[in-house]
Amino acid sequence: MNFDLILENRDFFLRAAGYAVVIFVASTMAAMALSLAFGSLATVRLKLIRMPVRIVIEVFRDIPQVVLLFFIFFGAPAFGLQLGPLQATILCLSLWGGANGAEIVRGGINAVPRHQFESARSLGLGSFSIFVAIILPQALRPVIPAYAGLCNILMHSTSLGALVGVVELLKSGQIVIDRASYYQGGSPGLTVYGFILVVYFIAGLLMNAGIRGLERHLGRSSKR
Amino acid sequence: MTQNLDTAVIRTIGLEKYYGIHQVLFGVDFSITEGERVVIMGSSGSGKSTFIRCLNGLESTQGGHIQFHGRDIEALAERDWRPLRRRIGMVFQDFALFPHMTVLNNLTFAPVREGLMKKAAAEERALALLERVKLRGKERSFPSQLSGGQQQRVAIVRSMMMSPEVMLFDEPTSALDPETVGEVLAIIQDLTSEGLTSIIVTHETNFARKCANRIVYMDAGKIVEEGSPEKFFTSPDTERARSFIASHN
After folding, report:
1. Do A126 and B85 touch (CB under 8 A)?
2. Are A166 and A85 in contact (CB under 8 A)?
3. Sign of the dihedral defined by the CA atoms of residues A59, A64, A69, A71, in that order
4. Nearest in space to B200 (alpha carbons), one of B28, B49, B85
5. How big is the CA angle at B192 (ends B191 and B196), to the nearest 5 degrees?
6. What's the gap between Cα A87 and its chain centre?
7. End-to-end CA distance of chain A
8. Min CA distance, A119 vs chain B (Å)?
């Protein structure tokens, strides 16, 4: 295996990893905001708000990420929305992550016992205060591990950007392989894809270790 | 027992409540005057908990009136109920403390958030009340670190923090171990002995005998009998009340 090829292209790979990080961070942040907003709205009593929100959540959850990405990238210009590969990938993962995250948040809110809401109401607290200070903290804490799992999926999904031309890790690998094949002959596919596999594996490993640490911490503090 | 309706703090006239098509309150007429301690008794499903939940707007009503100091309140919008709920405190069967907050935060959160007190004043009052219910030293604990009886005492103090005019107790001891029932009842007796107007739903007949000025007995969504504890427990008028007392002695 030609490991020199990896070293020769390290700056290129680093820049590509940077794009993957940008996609991951931006889409995770946006997905969190969408999850919180849509997950909360999906629990309101008013059917006029709750039903459309739940339909939107269901639609984005049921569409495969790659189909959604192609629809945004190739279809959005027809609606006057011209997005570059990077923006399209971020938007796709934000919507998909937001919809799936909203279901997690909704489940957390619905799991808060009803008497919590009633006892807060009986103290004369307003709906906003009750929701933000009483219900949400109780709803979010138990769903953090599930939400961290969703973030892990989003991290893996950054590689979808390659399908619309974002030069992230996978695409950079394809380019390096093409170049090496053209100029040096043979295919260094095993080396390059093996390297990318290891990078994703290590990133996933670190993230899972973080999630487990978080779960242990929450487990300890919930026994307070 | 005839009540002076002019001085009634809370009064209901022909109160009706439905869950869907199922009627649970059938024209309840009730009143309580300032400083009175009324114990509501009745078997499960008699509508006593639903009735007191209606009094602070946790349940909507479908007929009749609820008056607070002579003013009709049954049709108030949610935002108008809010200031009223601070004057009508409520303690629940299952304590319903906020599990993510310390005891001190449970006590100070609502008065500070609602702008009724500054944080320092709220903490001072909370600590004084905790002292009174013998829980001083537990202010930094979380609810899960307390026994059921201790949690219920904190829940009582939490309602008292709002300085309510009337306290509603919805079966405050029915979720407790028999050993801790006494400590909670003693606290309720102590707090209400200073003239705090209270409506207490309970099955504790000894407590009702000692603490109540008046017993209201409900059956099948109606008040079927009311009177002094002596009268109620020694010579009840109705057969239903007689068998209820016999089964709880």
Report:
1. no
2. yes
3. negative
4. B49
5. 110
6. 14
7. 53
8. 6
Residues counted in chain B: 249
CB atoms within 10 A of CB A35: 26
State whether B58 and A121 contact (CB < 8 Å): yes
From chain B, the residues in CB contact with A137 under 8 A are 100
pLDDT, tens digit, for every residue of A187-199?
Answer: 889 999 999 999 9
Radius of gyration of chain B (CA): 18
How many angstroms separate the CA of residue A97 from the nearest CA in chain B?
A: 27
Say yes or no for a CB contact (<8 Å) between B100 and A137. yes
| DSSP string covering B194-229 | TS-EEEEE---HHHHHHH-SEEEEEETTEEEEEE-H
- Please report the residues numbered 64 through 103 in chain B whose beta carbons come closer than 8 angstroms to any beta carbon of chain A: 78-79, 82-86, 89-90, 92, 94, 96-100
Measured distance CA(A31)–CA(A51) in Å, rounded:
20
Distance from CA of B159 to the nearest CA of A (A): 7
A115 and B94 in contact by Cβ < 8 A?
yes
Tokens of A41: 């709205």
Determine the Cα–Cα distance for residues A96 and B218; give it in Å rounded to an integer. Answer: 55
Q: What is the pLDDT of residue B111?
A: 95
pLDDT at B5: 53
Buried b (16+ CB within 10 A) or exposed e, B191-217: bbeeebbbbbbbbbbebbeebbbbbbb
Instruction: With CA atoms as reference, report the closest residue to A55 among A75, A35, A40, A38.
Output: A38
β-bridge mates for residue B30, sequence order:
B12
Rounded Cα distance, B166 and B196, in Å: 7
Chain B interface, mutation test: which of A115, A116, A118, A123, most B Cβ atoms within 10 Å?
Answer: A123
| Token pair 């997950």: residue | A39
Give me the interface pTM, i.e. the ipTM: 0.88
- Structural domains in chain A, CATH included, are 9-168 (1.10.3720.10)
Quote the minimal CA–CA distance from A64 to chain B in Å: 37
Model confidence pLDDT, tens digit, residues A45-100: 899 999 999 999 999 999 999 999 999 999 989 988 889 999 999 999 999 999 99
How far apart, in whole angstroms, are the C-alpha atoms of residue A156 and residue A169?
A: 11
For residue B83, the chain A residues in CB contact (below 8 A) are: 124
Report the side by side order of strands in the sheet with B22-33.
B22-33, B8-19, B63-68, B71-72
Q: Which domains does chain B have, with CATH numbers?
A: 5-247 (3.40.50.300)
pTM: 0.84
